[in-house]
Amino acid sequence: MAVEHSADGSGESERAAGSSSRSGTDTVQSLARGLGVITAFDAGRPRMTLSEVARRRGLSRATARRLLLTLEQLGYVRTDGRDFELTAKVLELGYAYLSALSLPEIAAPHLRRLSETVGESTSVAVLDGSEIAYVARVQARHIMNVAISVGTRFPAHATSMGRVLLSELPDDQVRARCEAALAHPPARRTVTTLDGLRHRLAEVRRSGWADVDQELEAGLRSVAVPIRDARGQIIAAVNVSMRVGATEEHEDPLRAILPALRECAGAIQQDLAASGAGGHQDPAIAARGGV
C-alpha cells in the first residue's frame, strides 16, 4: 500500500493512500491554503499585497509568502515585486472541470438562473427522429405545472424547441421526420400540414427564435432559441414555458423573456465550447455525456 508524503515539508501527516477515512488528518493543509489564496482574489480585489492576502485568509505573512511564491512558480500568480495578481492559467482549473461535463450538467446552472430571472420553467432538449427529448429542466414553483421531466418526449413540430431544432434541416429531412406525426396533432391549434410547418420554420430562421402558442397543449405557451456548437450548427434548444393565464398581465411576455433566454443560450454555448462537448459530437451523445 503506497504512502503519501507531504511535498512541502510543512508537517502534514503521512497517510496511507486509498484510506476510506475522510478525517482532518487525511487532508493536505497546504493544498487547502493554496486554493484559498487563489480564491482570495476576486473582481473587487484583483491585485493584493502579501499583507492583504495574509490578512484576508487569516495566514501569517511567512505562510502567505510561501504559498504565493509557489503559485507564482507554477504560473498561477504573477507579481511586480509588491502586488500579486492571478494569471490566465487559473482558467485551466475550471476547464478541467468543464471538460468532464455533459450537456445536461453544463446547462443545469444556467437553466436555474434563467428560471429565477423569469419566474417560469426552463428546459433544454435535443432532436431525436420526429421528437424532441428533454435532457435538462428546471421546474418553476407554481401551483399548476405541466408534468415534464428529463426524458420526456414530444412531437418536434408542435413544440418551440422542436421548431428551432428543425428550422435549419433540409426540407427532405423535415418531411421524413414530421410527415407522419403531422397527422396526429396533440392539440386543436397544432399545425397539421407540411406547408404550414414549413412556413413556421421559415419564420424561425428569419427571427432566430420560435414561439408556440397552445399547439402542444391548450393553455401552454413557450418560446425557444438555439444552442449552437463551435461550427455554428444547432445541437440543442433552450426554452421558457408558461401557462397562458400567466400572460394576461402583459401584452407579450414571451418576447420580453427573449433577452434573458438568449443570454442563457449564449452562456451554455460558451461552456460547451470550453468543455469540448459542443464541438463535433452528435448532440444525443453529448447529452448523455458520451464521447
TrEMBL record:
<dbReference type="InterPro" id="IPR005471">
    <property type="entry name" value="Tscrpt_reg_IclR_N"/>
</dbReference>
<dbReference type="GO" id="GO:0045893">
    <property type="term" value="P:positive regulation of DNA-templated transcription"/>
</dbReference>
<keyword id="KW-0238">DNA-binding</keyword>
<dbReference type="GO" id="GO:0046278">
    <property type="term" value="P:3,4-dihydroxybenzoate metabolic process"/>
</dbReference>
<feature type="domain" description="HTH iclR-type">
    <location>
        <begin position="28"/>
        <end position="95"/>
    </location>
</feature>
<dbReference type="InterPro" id="IPR036388">
    <property type="entry name" value="WH-like_DNA-bd_sf"/>
</dbReference>
<feature type="region of interest" description="Disordered">
    <location>
        <begin position="1"/>
        <end position="27"/>
    </location>
</feature>
<dbReference type="InterPro" id="IPR014757">
    <property type="entry name" value="Tscrpt_reg_IclR_C"/>
</dbReference>
<feature type="domain" description="IclR-ED">
    <location>
        <begin position="89"/>
        <end position="274"/>
    </location>
</feature>
<comment type="function">
    <text>May be an activator protein for the gylABX operon.</text>
</comment>
<dbReference type="GO" id="GO:0003677">
    <property type="term" value="F:DNA binding"/>
</dbReference>
<dbReference type="InterPro" id="IPR050707">
    <property type="entry name" value="HTH_MetabolicPath_Reg"/>
</dbReference>
<feature type="compositionally biased region" description="Low complexity">
    <location>
        <begin position="16"/>
        <end position="27"/>
    </location>
</feature>
<dbReference type="InterPro" id="IPR029016">
    <property type="entry name" value="GAF-like_dom_sf"/>
</dbReference>
<keyword id="KW-0804">Transcription</keyword>
<dbReference type="InterPro" id="IPR012794">
    <property type="entry name" value="PcaR_PcaU"/>
</dbReference>
<dbReference type="Pfam" id="PF01614">
    <property type="entry name" value="IclR_C"/>
</dbReference>
<keyword id="KW-0805">Transcription regulation</keyword>
<dbReference type="GO" id="GO:0045892">
    <property type="term" value="P:negative regulation of DNA-templated transcription"/>
</dbReference>
<keyword id="KW-0319">Glycerol metabolism</keyword>
<dbReference type="GO" id="GO:0006071">
    <property type="term" value="P:glycerol metabolic process"/>
</dbReference>
<dbReference type="GO" id="GO:0003700">
    <property type="term" value="F:DNA-binding transcription factor activity"/>
</dbReference>
<protein>
    <recommendedName>
        <fullName>Glycerol operon regulatory protein</fullName>
    </recommendedName>
</protein>
<dbReference type="InterPro" id="IPR036390">
    <property type="entry name" value="WH_DNA-bd_sf"/>
</dbReference>
<dbReference type="Pfam" id="PF09339">
    <property type="entry name" value="HTH_IclR"/>
</dbReference>
